[in-house]
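Z., the sequence and structure:
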Amino acid sequence: MNNQTRQARLDFQRPQAMSSLEDIAEDSHSSLLYLQNELLGVDSDDAAYAASHFGVCKGLVRLLQGSLDTEFEDVINKHICLYTRQ
């Protein structure tokens, strides 16, 4: 790991908008699906479109799974309690 990569990780700011979360999900998960399509010889706009959307979906789910145990647990519990009381 070079110094620029290390510094970028240290300077990481939490995303403040949904579009930023989608960009992170796209960069981290869709690119792997694009690579799989390329390795399998799939050269279709529809396959690329599906890989993009599925990758964003998968990335957002992973982000939510990682955050549930830490910072959003009390918010989720509050809303679940409010929902079950009604």
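Residues 45-68 form the longest helix (24 residues). The chain has four helices and no strands.

Let me know what you think.
H.
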